[in-house]
Amino acid sequence: MIPFSIDGQPVEGREGGNILEVALDAGIEIPHLCYNESVRPYGACRLCLVEVVRRGRSRMTTSCTYPVLEGMEVFTRTEKVIRARRMIIELILAMCPGDKVIQEMAKEMGVHEVRFKKEDKDCILCGLCGRVCDEIVGASAIQFAFRGDRREMIPPFLGEAMNCIACGACVIACPVDVIKMKEEGDERTIIRWKRTLKMKQCQVCGNYFAPWFQLEKFKERAKLPKEFFDVCYTCRT
To answer: 2-108: which CATH number, 3.40.50.150, 2.40.50.140, 2.30.30.60, 3.10.20.740?
Structure first.
């Protein structure tokens, strides 16, 4: 474990870790949207900015991407940090003015007015859904496309996400809850990706519990008996 300090509090982090995960473990709150401990840090939202002092030099950096280093001093609430975070949340709010999560974060940071031109987007472009789909699920069904203000997360060719297994991981991971999923009868639909798949019926309780396509993909990777995938999660316990 590597010792350093956050806001004067002595902390320790594992080698290869980052400032944000250490801070959260220590109960030190740093605002963030694009971070999830299950995937590699990306630094997209920039809200987790902190000030790091090391060897007499100070710099602003995203805490989710900055590695744990011995003896460094991290400050999460300096005037420079607060000012930068307020600017960032204001820009995100201007891009996605209808997102309730962003509205609440802006209020907590003291941002009540937006000085920039408002857009009508809902996705904050954190990339978390795509990273979870790629790194955790292994489906790689969605990806960033275009540049600048046209940038968006989409399935290939703007059509149905043919590699999507409708597992719902992206729905859970989305920090602003704009990826919706619905289940009707024996079908599950990930609405944003235009993907609808038939679901399998549990042989014990009779409930539909997961898409066939998803179960077949998992069956290829997992070294489990075939019968394991014929029963829902509840009936397995």
So the answer is: 3.10.20.740
